[in-house]
Structure formats: C-alpha cells, structure tokens
C-alpha cells in the first residue's frame, strides 16, 4: 500500500480545542503482491474523539472516518492515527468494520516536504 495523506490540525493537547478546520484525509493505493487489482481508497471526514500523548515524541488521535470501498462509502469507521516525531504516521483502521480489507496491521507513512505534497496526487482528495 502507498498513498498520500494530509494532516492539518492544531497542536493543542485538549480535544475540546480541536476545530472544524482540523482535518485528516488520505488516499491509499492498494495492489496485490502479484501486481494485479490496483485500486485506491480515500479516508475522509475524520472525527476527533480523543487525543493523547503516550510519550514525549508521539500523539495519538482516536476517532472515526469515512472510507471508500467498492460497495460504497463506509462511515463511522473506528480509526486511530499516531504521529511520531513529526516524521511517521501510523493509521489503524478497525479491521472488522471494513471486512478486513486492509488487513489487521497498521498502515505506515512518512512526512514529506510540503512541495512534494503539492506535486503529488493529494490534489485529488476532497478538502
């Protein structure tokens, strides 16, 4: 799996201070190991339910999101985002809520330079 994601949130530690402008969107491209069935999913409408700091270098965001699937959008999917050292993001999608489509392991990503994001497929994601 690979893809582009955009995390635009305040640096506040209290969930009460998150605003409607705080957003997480992602486009996740999947392909089977034999190179077939390439397809893309989007993750949108992330709703922040809880934020915590398990250690000094990471922030954990719990919430729900809408995920595009072949049968149509799946809403209110339990989703956890973890940001580590401002360089790594870990996305955990509740496997049972999406019929194990993404497997049971988290999806890892890295932070990229803003210019890289501007030139990537990020422009296809609903803002």
What report would you give on this structure?
This protein has one domain (2-124). A seven-stranded antiparallel sheet has the order 1-2-3-4-5-6-7, with no helix packed on it. 17% of the residues are buried. The protein is mainly β and 127 residues long. The protein has one helix at residues 114-119, and strands at 2-8, 23-30, 39-55, 58-69, 72-84, 88-93, 107-110.
Q: Let me know the largest β-sheet.
A: 7 strands, antiparallel
Taking strands numbered 1, 2, ... along the chain, how are they ordered across the largest sheet?
1-2-3-4-5-6-7
Calculate the mean pLDDT score and round it. Answer: 80
Total helical elements:
1
Helix share bin: under 10%
User: Helix and strand succession?
Assistant: EEEEEEEH
Bulk shape:
globular
Contiguous low-pLDDT stretches (5 residues minimum) are none
Structural class from helices and strands? mainly beta
Can you count the beta strands?
Answer: 7
Radius of gyration: 14 Å
List the defining traits of the structure above.
seven-stranded antiparallel β-sheet, 53% strand, globular, 127 residues
SSE blueprint:
Blueprint: E1 2-8, E2 23-30, E3 39-55, E4 58-69, E5 72-84, E6 88-93, E7 107-110, H1 114-119
Antiparallel strand pairs: 1-2, 2-3, 3-4, 4-5, 5-6, 6-7
